Input
Amino acid sequence: MIQSVTRRIMLLDTASLYFRAYFGVPESVRAPDGTPVNAVRGLLDFIARLVADHHPDDLVACLDEDWRPAWRVALIPSYKAHRVAEEHAEGPDAETVPDTLSPQVPIIDAVLDALGIARVGAPGYEADDVIGTLAGRAAGPVDIVTGDRDLFQLIDDARGVRVLYPVKGMSTLTGFDGAALRAKYGVDGSSYADLALLRGDPSDGLPGVAGIGEKTAARLLDQFGDLAGILAAVDDPRATLTATQRKRLTEARDYLAVAPTVVRVATDVALPPHDAALPTAPRDPEALDALNARWGLGGSLTRLLSALQR
Output
């Protein structure tokens, strides 16, 4: 009898991680020509540590093909609006990115490709949606690595889905499973999206419900089960809502009607074919050598190659 092998997949919220690497590694880390490569080297070191510490069988660098999808903006126009550097009638808007980070992103892409680490995105979708789709398809345990709390909604102990959340830059990771999420926020993964949309999130331009903070949102979800239960309670004079809560939830009905579609990650995105298997050797050694010489990747690349050889 042939037994199936359960594979552990690691899903990287790539932009979230290279932003953290950029701000966590000094800009004095530069290529031979003086170009800053702090985000590149910081990300390579971080991936090396993730591979060495958590031993994934598969690894996918998930991409924002559209960091501010039009279908989300159509429902909540303020969605990430404060982060728009330039609006484009055709294609995604340009995001505000530090001047010395933007040139590093193509280098990151090229290095990952030369290594053979899968990069996966989908037109019209964020990396969160790619992660949600791949996590839903996974047959084995899933480690989601992100600095974005929105992905806490995917935590699922029954399926072995957890989030590894960087704190203090890139130096410390906090693992969130169901127990850790309940201890921190008072909800399970299945309720986190409802908590987030009630609480709101200024970093994403989500207004939330006035007067409903994180703790109040958690109490309401514990009491009424989910957003639908809370809205049913608003219409039930016997429900134990305060007059202020009832008023503010009533005033926010239009927002609450569309917010779930915006906040909940998509889990059915059509993704391009890709090989998620973690490479043990570079896919294109010559290209990698050239990138190393051009950009001075040094010990960061050496450490990642060593981790991949495992």
User: Anything to note?
Assistant: The CA atoms of residues 46 and 171 lie 9 Å apart. Strands lie at 9-13, 58-62, 84-86, 94-95, 118-120, 142-145, 161-167, 172-176. The longest strand covers residues 161-167. The two ends are 29 Å apart (CA to CA).
